[in-house]
Amino acid sequence: MSFRRALALAACGLAGGSVLFSAVAVGKQPARSGDAEPRPGGSAAATVSPASAAPPGLLLLPPAAASCPPAPGWIERPASTGGYWDSNWDRREPLALINLKKKNDETGEEELAARLDHCKAKATRHIFLIRHSQYNLDGRADKDRTLTPLGREQAELTGRRLASLGLKFDQIIHSSMTRATETTEIISKYLPGVRKISTDLLREGAPIEPDPPVSHWKPEAVQYYEDGARIEAAFRNFIHRADVKQEEDSYEIFVCHANVIRYIVCRALQFPPEGWLRMSLNNGSITHLVIRPNGRVALRALGDTGFMPPDKITRT
After folding, report:
1. 182, 149 contact by CB (below 8 A)
2. Euclidean distance between CA atoms 240 and 224, whole angstroms
3. Phi/psi at 289 (nearest 5 deg)?
4. What is d(CA 63, CA 67) in angstroms, rounded to the nearest whole number?
């Protein structure tokens, strides 16, 4: 296998959420003469010629498969492979908003440039994703899963932290589940006048089957199918660049759940969404995403609880 081929397979694996080969540093190998050498334990047909061998210091391990796994039906991934950034990930790239067939042939490029400028976003969106505080795990129904006394303290600390940032928050959108609603009510005391909006889209669920899988949590396939479509809908509804009519930067708070936040982070950064369970979020933590007018996305904070005393931090 050539080094270039190995790199291509590696890119394919990263895009599909699995690693197809490993490059392991080894000592310099002694030069060998003669024809291609068979791989250990392999047949004479499975050979590597000296011309296509890896550079000194790298040992290439063969891939388990030569193709990327297919993406779930509700995930739209860019046609290109290799981890390239899809600038039209939110379907709001200016050129994608223009019907080029209606271009006036007389004015030509001048009109196109003016129309493109009209479709460009001007403002930056700051999105603060807050995980709900600690709640009663023994509750049988959602209405019984209320915040614990410690959870209420955590929400107070999160509210104070958000207020201390000195930002003009535009709105608080929260999951309709009890623990998220109660967390929102406490936080909002520190942000008077900021409107609150409840939505079922942000409710907790199983967004997509994780890779690698975990043994202690195995939802049925139908749960991934139903929850995944809903959480993906939440991503498409709430996570995108600013509307072209928005003139000033916005600061928005979303109070929801760990699975939802982790999935949103992976999707926004165009990381394999199957990796969402590789992250861990504390109760009451703050995750900060920034979406620029050109569609670029940056993660400024992930699960920040540095504002809480150590004895107040939990992950239940």
Report:
1. no
2. 23
3. -105, 145
4. 10
Is residue 311 within 8 A of residue 53, CB to CB? The reply is no
Q: Which two tokens stand for residue 179?
A: 């623990």
Alpha-carbon dihedral sign for residues 138, 139, 145, 147: negative
The pLDDT tens digits for 130-168 are 999 999 999 999 999 999 999 999 999 999 999 999 999
| Backbone angles phi and psi of 114, in degrees to 5 | -65, -40
Give me 289's structure tokens.
């995403």
Rounded CA Rg of the chain: 25
**Is the bond preceding residue 212 a cis peptide, omega within 30 degrees?**
yes
Location of structure tokens 């080094």: 3
* CA nearest neighbour of 309 among 289, 279, 282, 281: 282
Q: How far is 159 from 178, CA to CA, in rounded Å? A: 18
DSSP helix/strand/coil, 33: coil
Residue ranges of the alpha helices (H) in 132-200? Answer: 149-164, 178-188
Taking only the tens place, the pLDDT of each residue in 89-128 is 999 998 877 766 655 555 556 677 777 878 899 999 999 9
Helix axes 258-268, 221-238, angle to 10 degrees: 60
HSE, CB side, 13 Å, CA atoms: give it for residue 204: 14
Question: What pTM does this model have?
Answer: 0.74
Q: Are 280 and 154 in contact (CB under 8 A)?
A: no
Distance CA 22, CA 61 (A): 6
Cα dihedral 190/195/201/202 (nearest 10): -10
Burial class (CB in 10 A: 0-12, 13-18, 19+), 142: middle
